[in-house]
């Protein structure tokens, strides 16, 4: 079966400009253009996505099968293109009969066929074939236009849904816009209103329990303060100027190429304007940018920001790694403690987004379930994470073992681990503690938030830093009294 890409190649046309026009139309959309103006990060991410979409649509259109009627007409055109003048005149009845089956060229073809019968000369034959080709090009371009327009409408609806999700998430999670567009990435994927309901519910916990936000901020500072002093300052951006080659500077003639620049067109191309039979061919080549022209090339100055190299003896500043959050969802953590734990995870998600770090969440009791909240399906992952519970027993061993395995992945080498639990559990085996010590030597830090005043001190001593947030009635009343 003939596809659009093959037929476009044989007819020497391109759909690239058409899809580029679709991108311009998307950028001109009121909601999308307003969103781009709100922030550079969101605008840059959206434009990159549109560029990827343009290549995908080009590929989709190229591999879409041509309708059978148009395919048969194109094959018939190729057959008649190879015929000599006498044979073509002899087979004209067959041609007209085939065109009557639904071709846009039927009426014009009938008139040109009668002219060819009356004046069987080469010029009339070429005119018939050229006009037939123009009709096929028009039909194919209309088909491409329909496909591109359908894809544009689909993407526009998808982007507008994502923009709406991003704006709603900002109202809930980031009213001060500290994440610099990170919530745009979180809102990708299949946006469901139910996702925001759960996120809004747990974000409200941050207002009820200010200590959760304090722990998140304190943890964020601790991730920086302990090593930041020992690290050198980041390289300073420096503006440099370099020369780049450009076809827009007519310094030297380097060859001949196809284009639409009439000032550099070869004289042999202009000859077609003086021949009536070839005048349409000239205009077609001009519109398709296929006129043979002189190719000139020169150099232009360009400025570029490059980081200043570090001085001798300095080490480059390493980026902060991801955050692995392990949340206890056992039966003893049910109710208010689990709500606080998930609210703290949302606060840490804000921290990860503002610092452009990955946030990996593990829910555990006697089993472990993992979610990455900062990937392309982060909103759906967040909904699954907030809605999930185990109601089993507390076992730290599977969760910490899974976290240690995750730290071996190249993308998580610099990660820090936070465990949120009531820490009413068995002592950790010495082999696991030894693995944690080995990981500490590589720069990982292990943090703990105890949700019960009955947490076992021996378990908390395994971690580099720990906080106590008593979620019992006594602790909640005490914090409320302290705030009043």
Automatic annotation (TrEMBL):
What keywords would UniProt list here?
Coiled coil
Q: Which Pfam families does its entry note?
A: VWA_CoxE (PF05762)
Region spans: Disordered: 218-238
Keyword Coiled coil attached: yes
The UniProt record lists the keyword Manganese:
no
Residue span, VWFA domain: 320-483
Residue stretches in coiled coil? 133-172
Name it: ATPase RavA stimulator ViaA
Q: Which organism is it from?
A: Aeromonas bivalvium
